[in-house]
Write a sequence for this structure.
């Protein structure tokens, strides 16, 4: 396997591009894809201040590294979700990454500052944990960007993420969400601009980028996300991609080219007001985040549960073809 | 050969040498859904792994509701 550019030994193949790359040219490829997205979708310009929503996972650390390396001014914001050892580990990856590079990191802890955590919020609201998690992060990233005077919030959504979300929204024709599924959302009604510079890169590429750049990240899956619909959609699309390389990119970029303009990107603008408690945009008198704080007030903290889905057990231990199987669990998950 | 697996993290000992393709078939994982890592770098699909190697099969799929 040889590098498409220099013909030296390749370390990764990207089937949808029918291309192999060595380490140096793969890193260059990733930067070029981000630069292309920034230019094509008019995401940001040099000199603007940006805030990256960082989780400790591969995508957010990779996009922070790429934008910083490209010369952009990018600070990080990490939200401690209170998901036991998983959150503690994730926060550690983020702080080490920022410290090693001398980057500014803002940290908000849900339990310390707002009196709840994601497991408790999920139990109180009787909804999936990803719901309270997403609501909290969206609110806090938006508020921090506005209060801090940042020009845009950067998220690490990659091609696989966007294709999976699109697949889910198309399945149920969620027109309000379809209209907002763009690589850039302009600032509006108290919301900051949001950009997704990784939309041309798959998540295998982002994991490879981190390995090759020496970026340590949270490899373990969130114990509360196991088996959720987003992951199921990714499995469906990956099965398609395996037999038809490029299917995900064709699906997502075809949507942007042919269909996204048919959907309103700001369907709720006319009804948005201001939260009487925190001043954030709200569809009623009190925003969803402040209502969540109210509902969880005084609730007993709920411990993190182990995943029970069969999906969490992959990859499997070897079958009879392997000898001397000697598995040990290091207790990484919470 | 020591093989580190994830979700949950654990180690398995298997006999080598073995190709990357054969290793992934043994663990029933699609090549597109993982990286194979040896000594801090990626191992391409056509590489041969030695009996004395320590390798990690790292899943790359992640995500919540966002």
């Amino acid at each position: 396997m040889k590098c498409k550019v220099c013909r030296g030994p390749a370390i990764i193949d990207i089937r949808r591009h029918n291309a192999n790359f060595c380490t140096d040219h793969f890193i260059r490829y990733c930067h070029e894809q981000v630069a292309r997205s920034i230019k094509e979708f008019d995401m940001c310009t040099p000199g603007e201040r940006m805030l990256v929503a960082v989780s400790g996972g591969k995508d957010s650390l990779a996009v922070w590294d790429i934008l910083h390396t490209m010369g952009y001014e990018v600070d990080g914001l990490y939200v401690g979700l209170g998901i036991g050892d998983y959150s503690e580990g994730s926060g550690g990856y983020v702080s080490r990454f920022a410290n090693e590079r001398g980057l500014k990191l803002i940290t908000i802890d849900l339990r310390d500052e707002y009196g709840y955590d994601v497991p408790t919020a999920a139990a109180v609201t009787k909804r999936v944990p990803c719901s309270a998690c997403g609501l909290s992060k969206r609110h806090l990233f938006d508020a921090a960007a506005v209060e801090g005077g940042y020009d845009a919030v950067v998220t690490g959504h990659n091609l696989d993420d966007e294709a999976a979300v699109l697949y889910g929204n198309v399945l149920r024709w969620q027109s309000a969400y379809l209209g907002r599924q763009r690589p850039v959302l302009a600032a509006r009604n108290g919301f900051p601009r949001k950009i997704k510079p990784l939309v041309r890169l798959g998540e295998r590429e982002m994991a490879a980028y981190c390995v090759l750049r020496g970026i340590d990240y949270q490899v373990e899956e969130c114990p509360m996300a196991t088996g959720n619909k987003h992951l199921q959609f990714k499995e469906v699309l990956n099965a398609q991609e395996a037999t038809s390389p490029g299917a995900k990119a064709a699906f997502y970029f075809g949507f942007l080219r042919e269909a996204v303009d048919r959907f309103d990107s700001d369907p709720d603008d006319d009804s948005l007001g201001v939260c009487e408690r925190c001043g954030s945009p709200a569809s009623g008198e009190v925003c969803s985040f402040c209502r969540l704080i109210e509902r969880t007030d005084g609730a007993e903290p709920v411990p993190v549960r182990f995943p029970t889905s069969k999906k969490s057990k992959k990859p499997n231990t070897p079958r009879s073809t392997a000898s001397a199987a000697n598995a040990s669990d290091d207790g990484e998950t919470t | 050969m020591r093989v580190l697996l994830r979700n949950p993290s654990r180690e398995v000992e298997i006999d080598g040498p073995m190709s990357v393709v054969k290793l992934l078939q043994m663990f029933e994982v699609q090549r597109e859904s993982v990286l194979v890592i040896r000594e801090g770098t990626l191992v391409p699909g056509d590489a041969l792994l030695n009996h004395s190697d320590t390798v990690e099969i790292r899943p790359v799929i992640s995500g919540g509701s966002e």
User: Anything to note?
Assistant: Residues 9 and 57 of chain B are 10 Å apart (CA to CA).
